Amino acid sequence: MLRFLTAGESHGKALVAILEGVPAGLTIDFDAVTNELRRRQTGYGRGRRMAIESDRAEALSGIRHGETTGAPIALMIPNKDWENWQRTMYVEAEMPATASGADRPPVTRPRPGHADLAGFVKYGHEDMRNVLERASARETAARVAVGAIARQLVRCVGTEIVSHVVSIGSASIADPLALTFEDVRAISMDTPLHCSDANVEQRMMAEIDRARDAGDTMGGSFEVIAHDVPPGLGTYVQWDRKLDGRLAQALMSIPAIKAVGIGRGPAVADVPGSRVHDEILPDTDRARDEPMPIKRPTNNAGGLEGGVTNGEDLRVTAYMKPISTLMNPLRSVDLATMTESPATVERSDVCAVPAAAVVGEAMVAFVLADAVVEKFGGDSVEELVANWEGFRKRTASRFHRT
After folding, report:
1. How far is the C-alpha of 279 from the C-alpha of 259, rounded, in Å?
2. Is the pLDDT at 98 greater than 80, yes or no?
């Protein structure tokens, strides 16, 4: 079983993530971890913070000579904006009244759509900055670092993970499921929004520009595709161990994600079963050593049936609401005076859907890595891979009839 937790706030000196359960002997490519962190900071519509931060993760434990030891892995991501926050958060009382720069007054005007008000009530904070900095999406940098390690683990069983932006506002790809894994993998990393269709991408950028000009924000959706996922991950025997439920929870935990769809998603409610369920046909063209000599003309199920992977590409879509900080703020209440007042305005993005897609990849990688360790076990990567290869051979033999 894999577990991870994070510590640190947006204003803190560093984010720290602890990942437990990774088998020993996994060679970690830290350049790949850095690349994933860089991807999280890109995308049309991002704010000024991305020009300040240039994230890198440092291993504090659990990795020696570039390989995992089997012990918990601790990763630290320094916050380069720390100096701007240090005086504001910790010695504010000692500052002269004329202090400026990064200095910020207490937050008493909660933003609609953010955790500000709920955290004020739950934890009893008078200054809601204690809430908004921990609830900030800055913590997703730690998820991406952990996800980069999980991605390297699932690669040991042949699984690759990609994502693409499906929609921004009203601009949308017509049929995302028509795109193959190879189509999405071929999208250039230089595209502004990592969208497969250049014309749709231009309309997406126009949506973001209109929102920026109005002091508003814009949401959208993205799809994560995992290719060559071993069949048999997850289970149908208990509700909380079904893989689709675990994936939905992981993606819903990303800040601003309000809905998750598997495969065709909500659209399956609109048509009869004959147009939803993926027929099962023999595939005589597959090699004899492949575990599933079966082909499916469609993949509306998104690679999951009954909470278990079925050998098709895993396809999960997440839907992101617009960011809660508006430059043209919504109405709120100043809780210090209980009078109507504009909501607090913080440094923010106009749109962060491409970044959320990278976080989505990380969360899917983590859930799949957990399921791989659960299914194939082993205290070392060598043992895990041997168990996987044995499973492939046993499964392939069951499909061949003489």
Report:
1. 27
2. no
b/e burial code for range 36-54 (CB count within 10 A of at least 16 → b): bbbbbbbbbbbbebbeebe
Q: How large is the C-alpha radius of gyration of the chain?
A: 23
3-class SS string, 39-79: HHCCCCCCCCHHHHCCCCCEEEECEECCEECCCCEEEEEEC
Distance of CA 255 to CAs 17, 120, 195, 252, 394, Å?
Answer: 17, 18, 21, 8, 42
8 SS3 class: coil
Query: What pLDDT was estimated at residue 274?
Result: 97
Tell me the helices (H) and strands (E) count for the chain, helix number first. Answer: 11, 17
The one-character DSSP state at 199 is H
**What are the distances in angstroms from CA 20 to CA 2, 60, 138, 249?**
6, 13, 22, 19
Alpha-carbon span 230 to 292, nearest angstrom: 10
pLDDT at residue 346 greater than cutoff 90: no
> What pTM was estimated for this model as a whole?
0.93
d(CA 384, CA 337): 60
Q: What is the pLDDT of residue 93?
A: 39
Type of residue numbered 331: R
Residues 9 and 141 sit within 8 Å (Cβ to Cβ): no
Domains (range + CATH), the chain: 3-398 (3.60.150.10)
DSSP string, 14-31: EEEEEEE-PPBTPBP-HH
Helices (H), 100-258: 116-123, 129-135, 140-154, 181-185, 198-213, 243-252
| C-alpha–C-alpha distance, residues 227 and 365, integer Å | 11
Q: Which amino acid is at 398?
A: R
